[in-house]
Amino acid sequence: MKQRATVLLGSAFVALAALAFAATRVIAADKVDPVADAKAFQNFFFQKFPNVKHEDFVNGPYSMNEDMKRQWQEKEEFPPYEFALDAGKEMFSTPFKNGKTYADCFPNGGIGIRQNYPYFDEKEGKVVTLELALNRCREANGEAPYSYVKDEMASLTAYMAYTSRGKPMDIKIPDDPRALAAYENGKRYFYTRRGQMNFSCASCHVQSPGERIRAETLAPALGILNAMPIYRSEWSGMGTTSRRFVTCNSQTRAVPLEPQSDEYRDVEYFLSYVANGLPISGPGARP
Amino acid sequence: MKRSLALAMLLVMSLAPSARAANEADYKAAYAAAEAASKEAAGMRNQWTVTVSALAAAKKAADGGDFDRAVAAAREAEVLAKASIFQATSEKEAWKAMEIR
Predict the structure, then answer these.
(1) Which among A34, A172, A228, A265 is least buried, having the fewest CB atoms inside 10 angstroms?
(2) A156 pLDDT exceeds 60?
(3) Taking CB atoms and an 8 Å cut-off, how many pairs form between chains A and B?
(4) Which of A44, A255, A257 faces B100 most closely, judged by CB atoms?
(5) What is the rounded CA–CA span in Å between residue A204 and residue A211?
(6) ∠A271-A233-A113 over CA atoms, to 5°?
(7) With contacts defined as CB-CB under 8 Å, which chain B residues touch A195?
(8) ipTM of the complex
(9) Alpha carbon separation from B20 to A244, B12, B13, B14, B29 (Å, rounded)
(10) A2-34 pLDDT, tens digit each
(11) What is the distance between the alpha carbons of residues A244 and A148, in angstroms, rounded to a whole number?
């Protein structure tokens, strides 16, 4: 009888210990760990495409297809974003009505800083993207904000990206629970299926990079924002990161969110962080 | 003979309500249900473009007096909106299965 009770007690103890271990594992899996995430994210792509040089991932579909890459390299001699780049440079140095310029709003006069955006603003408790910072600069100097999706905003960000070309993406996540929450929210947005097509960002850019969706070759998610803004032949013009998110959502038949909504800011934060170390290649050109 | 005639009449009468043309009241009820579901989806930040299109088509048909088409479009919108709510609800946890770890 005593023996039986001992066996029962022992079994109960083992079962409890197993449950406790499993619970710890679940908690560990749910803990936000951006460093581990970024490492796993990059390794996934490096292992999936062992022949692609790490710094080439920022060239989107061209890193996936040699023929496309050769065509693009020839196009780069007279790149389609050149007009936007020139316009952006001029706009950047043209003073506002109050005599100040964009340079007054940014560290290092706005030159060579693209790799640090978006950042987490601890005062505001939110992610601030380069596009948002540019419009805030305009408004602080008495100017009307630009559309977030194209034209002037694309030109300005094209110029700022150009001054950062080759610099490694360097996004920081401060030791602030709100920053971690923003990062996690961005991650959630990236992996969440939406729209009638039931696609997440990851459905195309993690599961299927290099594959074709209709006539398009899908770009890998790794480094996808390093090339922003881009000239897209499909758009017959330039587009910003905001435009990219909006059109991706529409293509899945989801109603896009408003540009610079919290979700878009957070997903930009997540995608930029996991691309840390990869060079800025913007402005880019895409089919 | 009399009995089968009565049965046939009963059959016709039982089918009559579903065969009648939709009226404005039917449309309003169908549209209200679709709109409520659509608002719920939008509140979850998961509205579908096809829901918005179906709602617009329902309104357009009703404005033109075609209540059959308006009711059909409104019902379609409601079904789509409910599917988007289901998607948003299930994705609250399901997205984690997609994550690269």
Answers:
(1) A172
(2) yes
(3) 51
(4) A44
(5) 9
(6) 40
(7) 48-49
(8) 0.85
(9) 48, 12, 11, 11, 16
(10) 555 554 444 544 444 444 444 444 444 568 899
(11) 11
Residue A134's alpha-carbon distances to A107, A119, A284, B9, in angstroms, are 12, 13, 20, 75
- A248 assigned to active site: yes
What domains, with CATH codes, occur in chain A? Answer: 33-286 (1.10.760.10)
Contact across the interface for B46 and A196, Cβ inside 8 Å = no
What is the residue type of A173? I
- What would the pLDDT profile of B21-56 be if each residue is shown by its tens digit? 999 999 999 999 999 999 999 999 999 999 999 999
Q: Give the 3-state secondary structure of residue B37.
A: helix
Which tokens hold the place of A251?
Answer: 């293509």
Radius of gyration of chain A (CA): 23
Contacts of B84 in chain A (CB under 8 A): 196
Q: What is the 3-state secondary structure (H, E, C) of chain A?
A: CHHHHHHHHHHHHHHHHHHHHHHHHHHHHHCCCHHHHHHHHHHHHHHHCCCCCHHHHHHHHHHCCHHHHHHHHHHCCCCCCHHHHHHHHHHHHCCCCCCCCHHHHCHHHHCCCHHHCCEEECCCCEEECHHHHHHHHHHHCCCCCCCCCCHHHHHHHHHHHHCCCCCECCCCCCCCHHHHHHHHHHHHHHHCCECCCCECHHHHHCCCCCCEECCEECCCCCCCCCCCCEEECCCCEEECHHHHHHHHHHHCCECCCCCCCHHHHHHHHHHHHCCCCCECCCCEEEC
Q: How confident is the model at residue A174 (pLDDT cuts 50, 70, 90)?
A: very high
Catalytic residue among A105, A137, A201, A248: A248
Asked if A195's CB is within 8 angstroms of B100's CB, the reply is no
Tell me whether A17 touches chain B (CB under 8 Å): no
Is the CB of residue A243 less than 8 Å from the CB of residue A253?
no
**CA distances (Å), origin A67, targets A49, A63, A217, A259:** 16, 10, 12, 34
Q: Please tell me the distance from the alpha carbon of residue A68 to that of residue A205, in angstroms, as a whole number.
A: 18
